[in-house]
Design a protein that fits this description.
This protein is mainly beta. It has 3 domains: 4-55; 58-146, no CATH class; 221-391, Jelly Rolls. It is built from 3 helices and 23 strands. The strands form 5 sheets. It has an 8-stranded antiparallel sheet, with no helix packed on it. A 7-stranded mixed barrel has the order 1-2-4-5-7-6-3. It has a 4-stranded antiparallel sheet with strand order 13-22-15-18, with no helix packed on it. Strand 19 and strand 20 (337-347) form a beta hairpin. The chain is rod-shaped. The mean pLDDT is 88.
Length: 392
């Protein structure tokens, strides 16, 4: 269009062709926004201005992944060159796989960077069908907004990797928990978290493709409970209902009363009562003594409890006269004679090292769901008992 003000000087004349350029420009602005010229409508220029203001920066994408090609919508006009602060919006046609470029209205290919102006977008940061806004900084287009999942970048530096921290309630202090990347990462890895919480005592596992899920332990021992005796009449464990094998490991167990033996009883009613009938248990064991070159055979039938020691070579309560060992209960939930293995060692009253290995059974075809440790006389002065379950 002509520079009209230079024509209006009181001397020159303005030809009709030049004057008509003014309404021609206005008509073009109107029709480029999809309106039909009408002599009865006197706000079409305002509507055209509103259209450009509301959506003049919106483009359509006809490119491919990582190389986006933007074209104006309809007959709207685009800038004739890139300029600092130029903003464009578009619906992303294809998700990016990494570093990407954009070509707006054939003005030339420019790199797309994150908001810092230097970092390339990561794979998936420009998802298909999401609306994105890019702003030109004079060199590159920066992603100023994108309707996509939030990606938080915990940047590292030359001396340490990136780290994320979550602080506690400020009323409680300034401590935090966090995660930190390895110092050296061979390839990008994004782990997908489980959709729901797991059950108690489950662990977090990966499927090998960075998808995490909770799973129950299998083929491994799981710690269930630990108890510490302190002049305790008994140590009870309940809830033996699902395991293939249960194990109780005990150590440092000493009685308050001299010349005693550790004992074991079972329950079939969740620990409300423990079997102590005169003929409830059978037991057979091998006895080893540090003071004797030969081992002895030890056994009982129809007993009121399982003797984990030996009444001849009994347990004392002097210094270092304590016992340690393990018992294993096999499939106690089955309604069979419950079988139990045990191994116990201790120093006897005569300071001999005693080791007892044997087996026992509950002489009743019933499930066992609880066990009780006790001493033949007095209480358990000290000792730690830990219950484990073997998960099938």
């Amino acid at each position: 269009m002509q520079n009209i003000p230079t024509k209006v000087d009181g001397v020159s004349t303005l030809p009709a062709a030049e004057f008509n350029q003014i309404p021609a420009e206005l008509e073009t602005a109107i029709t480029d926004t999809g309106q039909t010229l009408s002599g009865g409508i006197l706000d079409q220029v305002s509507k055209a201005m509103a259209t450009y203001a509301g959506g003049g920066d919106f483009y359509t994408d006809s490119g491919v992944a990582d190389a986006y090609v933007l074209t104006v919508v309809g007959s709207k006009k685009a800038p004739t060159a890139y300029f600092n602060g130029m903003s464009v919006r578009f619906l992303i046609g294809n998700v990016n796989t990494g570093a990407s470029t954009v070509n707006v209205a054939t003005l030339g290919v420019k790199n797309i960077k994150l908001a810092d102006g230097t970092t390339d977008p990561e794979p998936g940061q420009l998802p298909a069908s999401a609306e994105s806004t890019l702003t030109f900084d004079g060199t590159n287009f920066r992603i100023t907004s994108v309707a996509a999942p939030l990606i938080i970048r915990a940047l590292g530096n030359a001396t340490q990797p990136g780290e994320m921290r979550w602080l506690e309630d400020t009323d409680n202090g300034v401590n935090y928990i966090g995660f930190k990347a390895p110092a050296l990462v061979a390839a990008n890895a994004v782990f997908e978290l489980p959709a729901v919480d797991g059950a108690a005592n489950e662990f977090l596992q990966t499927n090998g493709s960075k998808v995490l899920s909770f799973a129950a332990q299998t083929g491994a021992w799981k710690k269930i409970q630990s108890q510490t005796a302190s002049a305790s009449a008994t140590i009870d464990f309940t809830g033996l209902t699902t395991g293939v094998i249960y194990s109780v490991v005990f150590h440092g167990v000493a009685p308050t009363t001299d010349n005693t033996t550790p004992r074991l009883r079972t329950s079939t009613d969740g620990g409300s009562s423990f079997d102590s009938g005169a003929s409830d248990y059978d037991r057979a064991a091998n006895l080893g003594r540090s003071g004797s070159p030969t081992a002895g055979i030890n056994g009982e039938t129809a007993a009121p409890e399982i003797n984990l020691g030996n009444s001849v070579f009994s347990l004392g309560n002097a210094a270092n006269e304590f016992c340690s060992g393990e018992i294993r209960i096999f499939k106690p939930s089955e309604a069979n004679f419950t079988q139990i293995d045990f191994e116990v060692q201790y120093h006897s009253l005569s300071t001999e090292l005693i080791i007892l290995r044997g087996s026992a059974s509950r002489r009743s075809a019933a499930d066992v769901d609880a066990i009780r440790f006790l001493i033949s006389s007095g209480t358990i002065a000290v000792g730690v008992f830990t219950l484990y379950e073997l998960i099938a």
